[in-house]
Design a protein that fits this description.
Elements: E1 4-9, E2 12-17, H1 35-49, E3 52-59, E4 65-67, E5 82-83, E6 86-93, E7 101-118, E8 121-138, E9 150-153, E10 158-161, H2 164-173, E11 178-181, E12 186-189, E13 199-202, E14 207-210, H3 211-217
């Protein structure tokens, strides 16, 4: 990002830089691109952005907090009736290589004490919120999430369709009315619409057709 050139402007040589990102100002500082300094800053940045537990603000709701005891005290309460209604716990975050995602590999529960207001009475409760202890870079999509028509690509963390020939034919001959749906692994209409009496929607032609005409097709 530190490559530049000199151009003549009103008799003076002015350094210029090209930027791919918006909002960056071209400031030329030779010492900033010094090899040792640059490498040290780059290593420091990699440590900061790596996948690891990070302090995160979490809103307390009935879905993400376990109440010590029966839990009936929180029935009918929203997060606005919990004081405080947010806590700070460590959650996995950061960047991973390729298509991998920063995922939690180990958790523990941390206890917080909050006050709730119900029926004009103040209740003191202990709630447990999950906190990430260890993290790992992995796929957020599992092989079990693939359908019978898909195979699992562990390198790209995706489910890919088996019927590749059908996909190519759809992209080549489908025209403007059809597109390939990677979720259903089928050539589908881009849009559908309700049909009037006596006509039905044809997934082959992507339009409303008369019922007798559709029967002849099938």
């Amino acid at each position: 990002i530190c490559n530049g050139s000199l151009v003549s402007r009103r008799g003076q040589l002015v350094p210029t830089l090209r930027w791919n990102a918006e909002g960056l100002e071209p400031i030329v500082r030779k010492e900033a691109c010094d090899k040792d300094k640059f490498q040290n800053e780059y290593k420091s940045l990699k440590k900061k952005i790596r996948c690891q537990p990070r302090e995160t603000v979490v809103e307390l709701t009935l879905n993400n907090a376990n109440v010590n005891g029966s839990g009936t005290e929180l029935n009918g309460l929203s997060s606005s009736r919990i004081i405080p209604n947010v806590v700070v716990v460590k959650r996995c975050g950061g960047l991973c290589g390729g298509r991998k995602t920063c995922l939690s590999s180990e958790q523990k529960y941390k206890t917080f004490y909050v006050k709730t207001i119900k029926d004009n009475r103040v209740h003191c409760l202990g709630v447990q919120v999950a906190e990430d202890v260890k993290c790992r870079c992995g796929c957020d999509r599992r092989e079990s999430q693939c359908t019978l028509y898909q195979t699992y690509d562990k390198n790209n963390c995706t489910c890919t369709c088996k019927n590749k020939t059908e996909k190519l034919n759809c992209l080549k001959y489908g025209g403007s009315n059809k597109h390939w749906d990677d979720k259903t692994c089928s050539c589908s209409c881009r849009k559908s619409q309700p049909c009037t009496t006596g006509t039905v929607w044809s997934t082959e032609e992507c339009r409303c057709t008369k019922e007798e005409m559709l029967n002849r097709i099938w």
